[in-house]
Specification:
Layout (H helix, E strand, L loop, with lengths): L2 H10 L2 H10 L5 H4 L2 H13 L3 H9 L3 H14 L4 H24 L2
Helix pairs in contact: 2-6
């Protein structure tokens, strides 16, 4: 079985979106919450390219929920994850720039 064949039922059933929604409910920063759909899309791409042996093993041993949740948590909360680099770090820098502009021009 391919990763796509294993993961697609979790996407179609809404389980993947539910897991992401639950983890995003713990995020306090409203600006981060706006990227939930992007996060889901990036997560699907990540899962499709994840180690096939680990995905198959998790699937055969009924541990897919744990694997998916673990990946979501690492992607969402780690300061070295692709999500952090792509979205959260960008927002932090954008906030710094906005603050500097407001201080400079009194806006």
């Amino acid at each position: 079985m391919t990763n796509k064949e294993i993961i697609d039922p979790y996407i179609q059933s809404g389980l993947l979106a539910d897991c992401v929604s639950y983890q995003f409910s713990k995020v306090k920063d409203k600006a981060v919450k706006q990227f939930k759909d992007d996060f889901i899309n990036d997560l699907i791409v990540y899962l499709y390219s994840y180690d096939p042996e680990k995905v198959l093993d998790a699937h055969l041993n009924n541990h897919m929920n744990a694997l998916i949740t673990s990946i979501i948590i690492k992607q969402l909360w780690s300061n070295t994850s692709p999500f952090y680099t792509k979205y959260r770090k960008f927002m932090d820098r954008s906030d710094d720039i906005t603050t500097e502009i407001e201080e400079t021009y009194g806006e």
